[in-house]
């Protein structure tokens, strides 16, 4: 079970959280002006890196707040977590 | 030591309390233990601990347990066991033992209380860290006990320190990410049954450690030669340990070895009074150190040394017990047969790499140690001792797994004893082209038995290497999965059994449902009444009766489980416009509107009715199962995309109880319940909300209908839910008020073609696919999902669309999930093209026949088309229809 550092509550067990995919994939403004390809990229395409990745989690069974956190997809190690709309810490890589 | 009595296969024996069952049986001269699982080969005890492959028993006394290695059972008074020929059976009696769980956060978890584990515990304890030492044996010492050596007192004393917790008989079963481990502690099986205890039998530990030290030690392994499985053939450290402790049924031993451990064990056997006829060492040349120590030591005792040779075969007496050992040299045909009733094998050490591989650490092959070892140091995990390749003194093992075998010998040379898998089986896998250990394992079943390849794993890797001329680590790596040893399910459940196994959610009206005898349907964790049968009534009859009562009179349903989210703030309307496909910001105060939400991919995600309570106050309802998911969804958009919106969401599902009264007579009943409320259609219209006293309780009444009938939903604070329900039942008695459950609700909504998200949808339906184009706003610039509706795939022809299906035989209810094929009947030869499937299917009182909803490719354009549904026993024919079966004009909702 992962041990996830909520920036509001501190480290908690994975069962308290839900996953929210890759962070910093903003909802496009003027979506109607996007080409099908541009829109499909937003809806379906994620970077899926091997290694460190910034992703979104929600502390559903805790403070109910969404936040971003660095996680290493190889060994599930967590890096720093941070609140939305705050400066992103550097990748631990 | 006290003497205790035990029963093995119906015979009484006595042994020393606390020794292992295997040891006690040897003490009683029981060498021939049982027959093997598949080939009925006589077998005896092979090992010393959980690596045991042969001596499995079913325990009948105490809590009872199937397939336990006799080597791990501590002898207690009154123990009753039966030998298990590879097949376990559970006792018929209920296990009344207690099981519990404990959680522990700790600085350092040390797995294994051998020398290395104790040294690690000392190091971290010295640094002031909190340390927990878990060891699966009854006493600390680990490998030293294999060598017959005492544990240094100063190391043992570490276990008594204040910052060290020592848990013996505690097996770390699984290791996971971020220092999370799960262990089981056996607490009572070793106590005499007449000792009264309230203790749990097994405690499951959930440990979160900042750092975990793996000091799991090693098992000895066997060699593969002809007839290597007879009773009397054992791992050398096991034989030496049993015999040194006085469990000695043997007279003459041969020791075969690839390393110096065989010498140490030969000496221990000799000292315990066994005549060691020979030490057979595969190594011709050894280092000076080995010459000076090991070889010199046995020479001094007069033990014969045979160098550069190995065992090639064995013989048995008439019973099947070992009687002699045949020795041969690799490059010669010379053979010598030595009479012996014990053959002690030292085939090298196999470090216990299991826990390390659980978290993805790959063992590496050490040619020097002839073993897979794990040298690992990271923030979370480090390894030490034999696991890390530190075998203490220089064992100098040869890389050797067995002599060259003839085809005939291969038939009786066992690689995996429990699976009776032989060298011949192994060779067939190689000859069939298998190279990876994972393929060989699946081809031969090696490593799949109770011991999960604890000893046979490395042997198999070695044999593959020998067969194809590669080093073992070129073959692949050993991978294991938790649990390390078998665990009773009861231990994992702990106290969460029966009613406590899963949380149950019930409405404030639940007690009434239970008293009425209604069977319950599980909807997520909610318990909802399924139907309300009268005495002797079948479900089918009850549901038809309930449906008819609603369509002709008045029914009542507990709708309290619907997810409810209170939404407040000045931007709530704007927010809901983005969340729902239709318009909400223009909704008048006091009005409700049905809404559909989609994901960004344009697929329907949830639905429900949302009410504008006041200018900036809304109440959203969601599907019963979707409430938590929807709340997360709303918060995600608010917190990560539109933080500038002033909107606050709160779950109020449990705070509000909802009682729906439904049917043409519901207006009359509503009038009685709320005399002050004008219930006429003119002043209380469809989708309108009114605040009123209902049965003396302040309520919000809404004209919302999920059946197409005139209906009133009475919303009250949860505490009044039961009161409202009982008032409805008493005030409606002369109207034949009929309580109905989820099944009738489903039939009524399906008759109207109302979808249930999750039943008509599976995450691949757009509103258009559900024939709900009317709910998609054309005015709004944007809402979640909008852009996806014009994607090529969502806009294409031929998508599955919601339609009705009527079978030609109206008495037949088509099973839900059945496939629909086009242009076919019973006489059409296969293959036929399937065009869709049934999503909902019921018998209808209103229609007097069966009907179904279905998703059919291009279905909306195919109404009137004949279809067929192939079932196992017949082909059902029918026709595609509109998805609305009752009251297409919506005349009934106003009464």
Percentage of residues in DSSP E strands of chain B: 25-35%
* Helical content class of chain B: 10-25%
- Residue-averaged pLDDT of chain B: 94
CATH topology assignment of the largest domain in chain B: FAD/NAD(P)-binding domain
Count the strands of chain A?
A: 6
User: Might you state the CATH topology name of chain A?
Assistant: Folate-binding fold
Verbal overview:
- The complex is a heterodimer of chains A (about 90) and B (about 900).
- By secondary structure, chain A is mostly beta strands.
- Chain A is built from one helix and six strands; from the N terminus they run E-E-E-H-E-E-E.
- Chain A has one helix at about 35-45, and strands spanning about 5, 10-15, 20, 50-60, 65-70, 80.
- Chain A has a four-stranded antiparallel sheet, with no helix packed on it. A two-stranded antiparallel sheet of chain A has the order 1-2.
- The longest helix of chain A has 9 residues, at about 35-45.
- The two termini of chain A are about 25 Å apart.
- The model of chain A has no long low-confidence stretch (mean pLDDT about 95).
- Chain B folds into seven domains: about 5-85, Ubiquitin-like (UB roll) (Roll), CATH 3.10.20.440; about 95-220 and about 350-395 and about 480-500, FAD/NAD(P)-binding domain; about 220-345, 3-Layer(bba) Sandwich (FAD/NAD(P)-binding domain); about 400-470; about 515-560 and about 655-750, Probable tRNA modification gtpase trme, domain 1 (Gyrase A, domain 2), CATH 3.30.1360; about 565-650, Aminomethyltransferase beta-barrel domains (Alpha-Beta Plaits, 2-Layer Sandwich); about 795-895, Aminomethyltransferase beta-barrel domains (Elongation Factor Tu (Ef-tu), domain 3, Beta Barrel), CATH 2.40.30.
- In chain B, strands 8, 9, 10, 11, 12, 13 and 26 form a seven-stranded mixed sheet that branches. Chain B has a six-stranded mixed sheet with strand order 38-39-40-37-31-41.
- The longest helix of chain B has 14 residues, at about 540-550.
- Chain B is elongated.
- The model of chain B has no long low-confidence stretch (mean pLDDT about 95).
- At the A-B interface, helix 1 of A face helix 18 of B.
């Amino acid at each position: 079970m992962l041990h996830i550092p909520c920036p509001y509550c501190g480290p908690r067990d994975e069962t308290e959280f839900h996953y929210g995919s890759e962070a910093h994939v903003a909802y496009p403004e003027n979506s109607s002006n996007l080409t099908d390809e541009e829109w499909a990229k937003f809806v379906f395409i994620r970077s899926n890196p091997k290694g460190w990745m910034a992703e979104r989690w929600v502390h559903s069974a805790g403070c109910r707040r969404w936040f971003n956190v660095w996680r290493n997809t190889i060994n599930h190690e967590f890096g720093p977590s941070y609140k939305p709309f705050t400066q992103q810490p550097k990748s631990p890589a | 030591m006290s003497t205790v009595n035990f029963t093995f296969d119906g015979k009484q024996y006595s042994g020393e309390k606390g020794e292992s069952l295997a040891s006690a049986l040897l003490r009683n001269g029981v060498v021939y233990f049982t027959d093997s699982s598949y080939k009925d080969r006589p077998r005896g005890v092979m090992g010393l601990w959980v690596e045991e492959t042969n001596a499995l028993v079913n325990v009948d006394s105490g809590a009872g347990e199937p397939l336990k290695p006799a080597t791990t059972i501590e002898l207690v008074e009154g123990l009753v066991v039966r030998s298990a020929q590879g097949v376990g059976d559970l006792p018929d009696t209920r296990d009344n033992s207690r099981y519990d769980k404990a959680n522990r956060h700790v600085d350092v978890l040390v797995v294994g209380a051998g020398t290395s584990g104790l040294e690690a515990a000392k190091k971290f304890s010295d640094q002031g860290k909190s340390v927990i030492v878990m060891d699966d044996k009854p006493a600390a010492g680990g490998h030293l006990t294999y060598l017959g050596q005492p544990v240094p007192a100063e190391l043992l004393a570490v276990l008594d320190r204040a910052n060290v917790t020592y848990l013996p008989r505690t097996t770390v079963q699984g290791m996971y990410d971020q220092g999370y481990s799960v262990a089981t502690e056996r607490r009572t099986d070793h106590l005499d049954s007449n000792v009264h205890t309230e203790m749990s039998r097994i405690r499951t530990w959930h440990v979160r450690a900042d750092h975990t030290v793996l000091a799991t030690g090693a098992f000895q392994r066997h060699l593969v030669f002809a007839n290597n499985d007879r009773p009397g053939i054992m791992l050398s450290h096991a034989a030496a340990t049993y015999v040194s402790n006085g469990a000695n049924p043997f007279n003459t031993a041969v020791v075969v070895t690839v390393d110096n451990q065989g010498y140490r064990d030969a000496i221990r056997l000799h000292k315990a009074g066994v005549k060691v006829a020979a030490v057979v060492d595969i190594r011709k040349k050894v280092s000076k150190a080995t010459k000076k120590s090991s070889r010199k030591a046995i020479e001094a005792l007069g033990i014969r040394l045979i160098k550069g040779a190995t065992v090639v075969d064995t013989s048995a007496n008439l019973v099947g017990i070992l009687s002699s050992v045949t020795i041969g040299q690799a490059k010669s045909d010379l053979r010598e047969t030595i009479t012996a009733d014990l053959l002690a094998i030292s085939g090298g050490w196999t470090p216990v790499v299991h826990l390390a591989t659980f978290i993805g650490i790959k063992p590496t092959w050490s040619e020097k140690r002839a073993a897979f070892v794990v040298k690992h140091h990271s923030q979370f995990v480090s390894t030490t001792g034999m696991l890390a390749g530190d075998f203490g003194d220089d064992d100098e093992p040869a890389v050797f797994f067995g002599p060259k075998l003839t085809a005939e010998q291969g038939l009786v040379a066992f690689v995996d004893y429990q699976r009776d898998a032989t060298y011949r089986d192994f060779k067939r896998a190689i000859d069939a082209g298998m190279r990876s250990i994972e393929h060989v394992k699946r081809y031969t079943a090696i490593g799949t038995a109770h011991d999960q390849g604890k000893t046979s794993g490395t042997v198999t890797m070695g044999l593959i290497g020998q067969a194809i001329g590669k080093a073992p680590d070129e073959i692949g790596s050993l991978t294991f999965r938790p649990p390390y040893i078998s665990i009773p399910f009861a231990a994992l459940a702990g106290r969460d059994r029966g009613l406590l196994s899963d949380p149950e959610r019930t409405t404030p009206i639940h007690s009434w449902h239970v008293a009425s005898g209604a069977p319950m349907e599980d909807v997520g964790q909610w318990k909802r009444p399924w139907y309300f049968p009268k005495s002797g009534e079948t479900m089918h009859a009850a549901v038809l009766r309930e449906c008819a009562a609603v369509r002709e009179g008045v029914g009542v349903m507990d709708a309290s489980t619907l997810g409810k989210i209170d939404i407040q703030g000045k931007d709530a309307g704007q927010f809901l416009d983005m969340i729902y496909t239709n318009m909400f910001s223009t909704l008048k105060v006091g009005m409700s509107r049905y809404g559909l939400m989609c994901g960004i991919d344009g697929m329907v995600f949830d639905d429900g009715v949302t009410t504008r309570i006041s200018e900036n106050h809304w109440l959203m309802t969601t599907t019963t199962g979707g409430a938590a998911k929807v709340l997360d969804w709303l918060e995600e958009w608010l917190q990560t995309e539109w933080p500038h919106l002033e909107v606050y969401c709160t779950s109020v599902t449990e705070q509000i109880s909802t009682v729906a009264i439904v049917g043409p007579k519901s207006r009359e009943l509503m009038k009685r319940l709320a005399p002050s409320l004008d219930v006429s259609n003119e002043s209380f219209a469809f989708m309108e909300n009114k605040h009123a006293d209902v049965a003396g309780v302040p309520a919000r009444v809404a004209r919302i209908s999920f059946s197409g009938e005139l209906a009133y939903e009475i919303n009250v604070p949860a505490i009044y839910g039961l009161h409202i329900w009982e008032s409805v039942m008493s005030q409606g008695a002369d109207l034949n008020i009929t309580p109905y459950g989820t099944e009738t609700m489903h039939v009524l909504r399906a008759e109207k073609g109302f979808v249930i998200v999750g039943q008509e949808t599976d995450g691949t339906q757009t509103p258009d696919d559900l024939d709900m184009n009317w709910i998609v706003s054309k005015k709004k610039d944007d809402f979640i999902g909008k852009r996806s509706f014009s994607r090529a795939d969502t806009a294409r022809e031929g998508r599955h669309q919601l339609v009705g299906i009527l079978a030609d035989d109206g008495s037949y209810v088509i099973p839900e999930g059945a496939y629909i094929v086009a242009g076919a009947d019973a006489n059409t030869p296969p293959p036929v093209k399937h065009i869709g499937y049934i999503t909902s299917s019921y018998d209808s009182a209103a229609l007097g026949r069966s009907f179904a909803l279905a998703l059919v490719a291009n279905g909306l354009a195919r109404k009137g088309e004949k279809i067929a549904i192939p079932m196992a026993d017949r082909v059902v024919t029918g026709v595609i229809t509109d998805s609305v079966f009752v009251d297409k004009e919506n005349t009934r909702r106003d009464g």
